[in-house]
Write a structure and sequence with these properties.
Receptor-associated Protein; mainly alpha; extended; 3 strands; 3 domains; single chain; three-stranded antiparallel beta sheet
Length: about 400
């Protein structure tokens, strides 16, 4: 029988640890519980050290949304909390998420609240999720809170999917076009260069430029590719710093068309998140802080934190929100109306609905704009290369004529 190393507190609150022999981990936990031990950690002896530890990864928002929806349905049906977690853990296909759910169930069985148990796993349950669960437990409306959470996550996933779908087409076209142009310059142009050099004479200016570009790609192409890869990772590293994140996020917001789309996405996310938190009973200061951290943009985050500081000093949300110059005036006015009428969460939900539709329209317009633009760009590049290769031939034919 395997041995299990355990840690916990006895009924007097004193910390204890030891080794217990049991068939399974669950059996060891049950034995310790009968001994009035509040278990904090149990693991099988001999498995504490892994030669190749599995790298922890995050859980997709889609899986969390499905888990939350099923959790709310089970609780609404009257199933006990621990039994819900046990069933959800057994049926979960993702190994990482299954282990997290099982650990949450173990902590809840040991006497921890659901919010405290989930707070230990930020890869799956962020601050927003935990804060709403905590509010639901305090108000005795956990099933309702889970329904709101599921709706919120599903809408966030839908918004993210729209943005990703809009980016797939232009990025894939650009990559394919870059690959085609690279192959033409690398393999095709040198053949024409040898042909032209054999005929003699001076090449036209445009042909010389294309041949020079081909020679550059042939000699230094691999260095350019390596440089681009290094530049990409350097930008990622720079973006992880506080100053770098503000610089890059600020530049993104200033890009024509794209910046406006990102601003609409940020407004929709801000309103949806804050509406979900306030309607669930989370204090407004905590709600603003959580909303700032989940905004996805450093400039928006700084603006929301400035609003939070002003609210902490006794001001309304709309007044400092207008001073940030980040959010559109219509959003500020509607939030002001919501504060005056006492229906802030409902007004925020309406703003979020409106801007999510605006994002749909903006993405459709961006796609319609990108399609002809990509055709013009690709046609210009390929046309320039083809023209450069045919100019010497025209010159030769004119001489023959």
């Amino acid at each position: 029988m395997p041995s299990f190393v355990w840690k916990g507190k006895n009924r007097f609150g004193a910390f204890q640890e030891g080794v217990l022999i049991a068939d399974t981990r669950d059996a060891a936990v049950a034995t310790l519980r009968r001994q009035n031990i509040q278990v904090s950690n149990v693991r099988e002896k001999g498995k504490e050290i892994r030669l190749l530890p599995r790298i922890p990864r995050g859980v997709s928002a889609k899986r969390v949304a499905i888990f939350t929806r099923q959790f709310s349905v089970m609780l609404d049906a009257g199933l006990p909390l621990v039994q819900c977690l046990e069933i959800l853990g057994e049926q979960e296909e993702d190994r990482t998420f299954r282990e997290i759910i099982q650990q949450v169930r173990t902590d809840v069985e040991s006497g921890a609240s659901l919010a405290d148990a989930m707070r230990k796993h930020p890869k799956a349950f962020n601050n927003l999720y935990v804060s709403m669960i905590q509010a639901g437990e305090a108000g005795g409306i956990l099933d309702i809170i889970l329904q709101r959470l599921a709706q919120y996550i599903e809408k966030v996933v839908r918004l993210q999917s729209q943005v990703k779908s809009a980016l797939i087409y232009p990025v894939s076209i650009l990559l394919i076009a870059a690959g085609v142009v690279y192959i033409i310059l690398w393999k095709v142009i040198p053949v024409f260069e040898q042909l032209f050099s054999g005929l003699g004479g001076e090449l036209p200016w445009l042909t010389r430029q294309v041949v020079n570009a081909s020679n550059f790609v042939g000699r230094f192409g691999w260095l350019v590719i390596i440089g681009l890869i290094l530049l990409y990772f350097a930008l990622l590293r720079y973006h992880k710093t506080q100053g770098g994140r503000r610089v890059i996020d600020g530049l993104l917001l200033r890009i024509p068309v794209v910046g406006m789309l990102l601003r609409k996405i940020a407004v929709a996310r801000f309103c949806r998140t804050l509406a979900t938190l306030t309607s669930s009973g989370v204090p407004i200061l905590d709600g603003l802080e959580i909303t700032a951290k989940t905004s996805g943009n450093a400039i928006i985050e700084d603006a929301i934190m400035a609003v939070r500081k002003a609210v902490e000093e006794g001001k309304t949300i709309s007044m400092p929100l207008a001073e940030t110059k980040v959010f559109p005036p219509m959003v500020v006015q509607m939030i002001n109306v919501g504060e005056q009428t006492g229906a802030l969460d409902q007004m925020l939900s309406k703003i979020a609905d409106f801007y999510e539709e605006e994002v749909d329209t903006a993405i459709s317009g961006l796609m319609k704009l990108l399609e002809p633009l990509m055709i013009v760009i690709l046609g210009s590049i390929i046309g320039t290369i083809v023209t450069a290769m045919y100019l010497p031939m025209y010159a030769i034919l004119n001489k023959i004529g």
